[in-house]
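Example for tutorial group B:
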């Protein structure tokens, strides 16, 4: 199982690295999953994520307190809102837009209630 978790960790580190370059892809959520997987396979790699000068504080804040920075909350909720609006303007079926909007509203509510870093 150690190799499985190690593979998951590296996969999500790779997705996080892609997220650094692509503004539509977040980095920290992928690093959260990577740190979680590395905790089960390589504590040293988990610690490297936690010690990273840019992304480590966000990962530690989530792991310790479930905290999310205010700017991250605003970006995430704005991106979800824009995504639902694009679906609506693109003429997606109403049930698709309603389902997407409902899921995004629940996620946004959860995110908004998290403590701030």
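The residue assignment follows.
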């Amino acid at each position: 199982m150690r190799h499985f978790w190690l593979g998951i960790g590296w996969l999500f580190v790779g997705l996080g690295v892609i997220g650094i370059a692509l503004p539509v892809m977040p980095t920290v959520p992928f690093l959260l999953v990577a740190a979680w997987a590395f905790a089960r396979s390589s504590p040293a790699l988990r610690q490297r994520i936690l010690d990273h000068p840019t992304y480590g504080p966000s990962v530690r804040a989530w792991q310790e307190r479930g905290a999310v920075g205010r700017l991250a909350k605003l970006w995430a909720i704005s991106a979800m809102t824009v995504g639902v609006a694009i679906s609506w303007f693109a003429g997606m079926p109403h049930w698709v837009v309603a389902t997407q909007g409902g899921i995004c509203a629940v996620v946004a509510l959860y995110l908004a209630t998290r403590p701030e870093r």
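The mean pLDDT is 94. Compare this with the pattern of hydrophobic and polar residues in the output above.
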